[in-house]
Amino acid sequence: MTDRKADPAVDRRDVAWWSDKAVSVLVFLGGISAILFIIGIFVFITREGFGFGEHFKAGEIFGSTRWAPTSDSNPTYGILALVAGTASVTGLAMLIAVPFSLGAAIYIAEFAKGRTREVLKVLVEMLAAIPSVVWGFIGLTIMNPLIIQTFDVPIGLCVLNSGLILGLMAAPIMTTIAEDALKAVPDSYREAAEALGATRWQVTRRVVLPAARQGLLAAVLLGVGRGFGETMAVLMASGHSINLPTSPFDSVRALTATIAAELGETAVGSPHYQALFMLGILLFAVTFLINLAADLIVRGIRKG
Amino acid sequence: MNKTLFALALALAATGCSRKDRSADSKGGRAVIQNKGSDTLVNVAQAWAEAYKTVEPNVAVAVSGGGSGTGISALINGTVDIANASREIKDKERDAASKAGHTPKEFIVGYDALAVFLHKDNPLKKMTFAQLADIYGEGGTTTKWSQLGVQVPGCGSDEIIRISRQNNSGTYAYFKEEILGDNKDFKQGSRDMHGSKDVADLVAHTPCAIGYSGLAYVTPEISTPCVARDDASTCVAPSMETAVDRTYPVARPLFMYSSGEPQGAVKKYLDWILSDAGQCIITKKGYAPARPVKCDG
């Protein structure tokens, strides 16, 4: 029974063994911290916002465009106009950003060569480094008078202004991810098509784009998520006006901008405060779903 | 200057987390007064803080903005010595502060004439409270400039673009109470700007616009009509003089609230603000002093 001795070289608790353990614990903590944070945030905003239940009238919240939380006589919490504001701005931003960023990604990945390609990549990434408040400032002071003069409308802070700005803000992330998706298509596909005599555009259109389809879709979805959550630029360029938009020249107000503008001075625990957290829950849920969809699609690529 | 104050505030915030006693108590011979609140007052408060360095080199005043409500909340929580406010403290806030042991003491440090902002090409020179209420108020029917009898050059659509403030600003609350009246609301669909400067910028670039903000934010691109309480009263143009003698109907007092009866460095600072030297500084910043003062320059 006792004649079998463990090999000391295999089961030795030396420095290497301990550091291996320590590092694996650290990496594990790092790995699960993101999950802990997201659960923590979710619990926090749900707890703050769920008290709104006692003021909750689904018909008023989702059916009314009147957002007047500080009214003394008739406080109302209708979010329809805010949802429409966010949706219209994000929608227009995607109309602008999707063709531009997919075009840029295709050019960088398939057509550009050498130096041009490197310079372009750096420039696109620099576009992503411009702070959103600077974008908002451009919207307020440069685009506003420009839109008034060009289109002869009374005010230039509108869906068009913030959509353009948001499109420019979402374009870099979409370009970068779409380019990665195109790069992930194996070169052997391209070589096979070229060997059959296809031109570069034919290779791109018939072979590379279909193969990278899911990656491109994920890029677009991440861009939508970016647009949906953007706050400062939209706050400054949209006009911040509670309004159901009927044209691109109408001022609107976004969900995010409403939270940013109003949360600072509301009394903690008041119905107004809880209503703003309810908006937060809504934003969180939608962004979560968009990112989840993008993630599942990217996973689909890896498997296929 | 903003930057140094900000850095100072940051440094204080960093060291101040576990602090129990309030900051005005001098430490190592140097007292720090925490001052926070109204964005309307923040420029003046910073000018006072800067000038006070030469008066009392041993006292530093850390100023930050955030809005009247933010400042008063900070007073209730005991994190500031003086709160700035562009509206009177609410009974609820006063009770909360007293309960927390920070009974607020009120000081009127100046007056702010709230001017109506129009684009410089707008020919309208006179407005009454009723006209403003009908433009801004819920249920109001004035939506075109022609209804006021003017044609605004550069404003082809004739539409009145209402520019307002976010619903927790002191300026918003004062305008609502004074012009629209108790229990009335703003009409939905105004452009709600996040700061007086944004209102000024937007009106300056938008011929169809109407806005309101403190007199200090008026620029040469903005025209400010005279305002009459009703058709019978005289129309008074907004200016420093009409704000001090209280003939301008939309002038609001600007407040500082100290936590309890001010003591030591805080008392000296508030006395200095209300002295001729302090009052001349607020005058230079475009607000009316709390009482008539003579300043050079």
Question: Mind summarizing the main beta sheet of chain A?
Answer: 2 strands, antiparallel
Q: Using a beta-carbon cutoff below 8 angstroms, give the protein chain pair with the largest interface and the number of residues from each chain.
A: A-B, 37 and 35 residues
Order of helices and strands of chain A: HHEEHHHHHHHHHH
Helix content class of chain B: 25-40%
CATH superfamily of the largest domain in chain B: Periplasmic binding protein-like II
What is the mean predicted local confidence, pLDDT of chain A?
87
Biggest sheet of chain B, open or closed, and with what strands and sense? 10 strands, mixed
Q: Termini of chain B, distance in Å?
A: 23 Å
What does this structure look like?
The complex is a heterodimer of chains A (304) and B (297). Chain A has 304 residues and is an all-alpha fold. In chain A, 72% of the residues lie in helices and 1% in strands. Chain A folds into two domains: 8-55; 62-303, MetI-like fold, CATH 1.10.3720.10. Chain A has a two-stranded antiparallel sheet with strand order 1-2. In chain A, strand 1 and strand 2 form a beta hairpin. In chain A, helix 3 packs parallel to helix 6 and helix 11 (255-262) crosses helix 12. The longest helix of chain A is centred in the first third of the chain and has 36 residues, at 15-50. In chain B, strands 1, 2, 3, 4, 6, 7, 8, 9, 11 and 12 form a ten-stranded mixed beta sheet that branches. In chain B, helix 3 runs parallel beside helix 4. The longest helix of chain B is centred in the first third of the chain and has 17 residues, at 39-55. Chain A binds chain B through residues 65-74, 81, 140-141, 144-145, 148, 152-157, 235-236, 239-243, 251, 253, 261-262, 264-267, and chain B through 66-70, 73, 155-157, 159, 161, 166-169, 182-186, 188-194, 198, 201-202, 205-209.
